[in-house]
Structures
1.
Amino acid sequence: MNTHIAIFASGSGTNAENIIQYFSKSKSIEVSLVVSNRSDAYVLERARLLKVPELIITKKEFSESEYYVLTKLRDFHIDFIVLAGFLLQIPKYLIQAYPGAIINIHPALLPKYGGKGMYGDRVHEAVVMAGESESGITIHYIDEHYDEGSTVFQAKCPVLPGNTPADVAKKVHALEYEWFPKIIERVVNSL
């Protein structure tokens, strides 16, 4: 039986594209849906190009339309949710509907540089400003708080003297592309 994954993303979607391509060869795991809260998110175009159905669910729909959101996910037989640059907080009803089946990737070594408003370049800027000697990625389960769910996996990269936030971002992206699909696969196969 196939496990059907929905990828939630708010931006460009490079991680989503990488995950879709990784699982295109899988016999047991399928990316069945890409969900975005923004109609102008480039991730939707990536999904179209890769022939994965896409769905826009607005912030208001997420917060006020529990039945609509859950029905849409059930229509696509979604078993597991992957957050890949999704900027909305996941509502409690979704966490309850998918217990232990929602993971997120964060571009830093949590618990440092997490929480509301800490995403993308803001994280890398904070890491460089603080003079950290390393950064990395954290893949974690979702709970009711931003970036506080239990950690599944971390990978590190050095932050060298003179590195800019863009330098750190490049290293972190490389870790995301290498590890996120593999860890998704490991978690899904352990369900």
2.
Amino acid sequence: EFLRQAGIYTQETIRAARSFCFSAQPVLLTGDNGVGKMELAVSIHRYSDRWNKPFIQIDCAAVSPLDVMSGLLQNGRRLREGGTVCFEAIESIPRQQQ
């Protein structure tokens, strides 16, 4: 099953999320806190052709923008191999630094 708790998402959301599994383009998931954006991100990664590559979650509210960049640089090789980066709370970083 694509999403275990599919009852909390509309069918339109599930269809869109499934379509993202087949795309190499970046995806921006937006919504209020607690609506399940992280679960969607994990499901998209898990059902994509990158399922066996790293899923790197970065909580931008918990680290400085420099730490975010440092983390990306440290994981650069893994990411070039096809991993997924999920930026949580990216809105906590000033827009010009995003």
3.
Amino acid sequence: DYKKQLDWFLLSYPSHDAMQRWTTDLGQLYLNEPALYEIEDSWAGFTWLNPDDNSRSSIALVRWPRTEGADPIVCVFNFTPVPYDDFLIGLPYKSKLVPLLSSDAKKYGGTGHSFRQIKSKKQDFREFQHAASVPLPPLSAQFYILKKEEHHVAHTNETGAKRRSK
């Protein structure tokens, strides 16, 4: 009813309070991560990582930023009340998924399912040569920073000592 104020007393219920925290934190994530709001008018800002797992009603995608130095964001969603420990997603390069935000955190009313850093492995999946197995809590949205893994090569300097470089 647009003629009256919001029912603020509902925030005294834990589930409503948790939803308010989730909405606030999700809004902050959107404001702080250029990948989530840049390049909205073309496919250059978006790549499917696993769009076809209809048996689990789950999807994954990556949002790409335009801003120099900003990180891509991997978004993974489970639309079922069933948890999955092994949702496979393709990745564009050797990388690690750094946890950013999960709707399944206890402070949002979730189960507190494991939300941790995940390293990719060399594995073909769809058009990708790398993949990661992501644990999916029930009815959840998870956001990760996609960090490219650097290759380190040993070099010998003028004294013959080995050193590592990127």
